[in-house]
Amino acid sequence: MVFDKIFDILKSLFKSCLSGDNDYYEDDRKYYNNNYSYSQAAASNTNNKHKKQQQQYVKTSKEEEPSSTELHDLSKALQKIIKIDKNKFIPGKDIKINPQRSIRVGESGDHASNHLFSYVNMRKLESTPSIKLFFDLLDNYSPELGVTETINGKEKREINKFIDEICKTVPIRYCFNYLVAKGQISNDWASFKKELYNIWFRGYYRKAVNDTSAFEHVFVGEVKEDNDGVIGFHNWITIYKEEQKGNFDYRGWIPPRKDAKTTERPDQDSFALSIKFDWKGIEKPVTSCLIGTSPECEIAMYTLMYYYGEEVEFRHEDYTIKINMHTFNNKYGKTIGSCYPELI
């Protein structure tokens, strides 16, 4: 009698192990596979929900697939990413700049009495999902080099949401398919998201432990020790936001070199620009940025550059643009020191 009861209990436990309770272990694996960004709450989702989340990345459109030519010519791939950027702001329509007068890199004075941006489509700016989430990231950083950055739970969730959102966009999906086709990464979105986190958001040492990251340098901007200059700061959205806050003083546009292929003077619908400015009273003699590109467009372009190029030239409309990628090796391996466009 007692033996029968014990047998029934063991039988029940065995059935439980074979049933849905086993989802716990699947969710546990999912959490550890994605611990770069996902919260512990996300790890408790059921296996079925996890599959649904993965399925949103299965279908691909033709424009998300790289051609044979693009796979063999990175400049063509960069052109393609700009072309398929669905969230771009069209210069002269969604966004207008006021270049005003030119200024040389070593020249003093202010050659621009007005703001750089004369018009931005605010409805579009505030309703584009990736840009809204991009805004959330901008206040997560201390610009001073030598100050260790600590990412708290809220900030990590903001990074998660941003990565999740841009991975729904055409430029990032193209980037993913490009890397898969080249055999650089596996055909797994969770692993790719982790890779994006490591490339762009993992902190590293510049003047102190974890005082910078690739994202902070390229998209947010940094200040040298003792306020001895600004570095990074290559994104038009950040420039616009800081100008609206009164932190950014535009001082004029930098003329191309004498031997430059791009000779047009900038106007209200320029796509790329080199400028001189002060940020919070600290000068940067020259920086360059693309105008109107979405965050996902630039991250897709620069991620391909991280893997495959140090300097790549391409044509866009009347512009010849060179993307410069500077990397170095640290304890994490290959790391982005800086990345920026240049009119040539």
UniProtKB/TrEMBL annotation:
Residues 43-70 are annotated as: Disordered. Signal peptide: none annotated. One of its GO terms (molecular function) is lyase activity. This is EndoU domain-containing protein. Residues 70-344 form the EndoU domain. CDD domains: XendoU (cd21159). Residues 60-70 have a biased composition (Basic and acidic residues). The keyword Hydrolase applies. PROSITE patterns: ENDOU. Monomer. Keywords: Endonuclease, Hydrolase, Lyase, Manganese, Metal-binding, Nuclease, RNA-binding. Its cofactor is Mn(2+). It comes from the Eukaryota. Belongs to the ENDOU family.
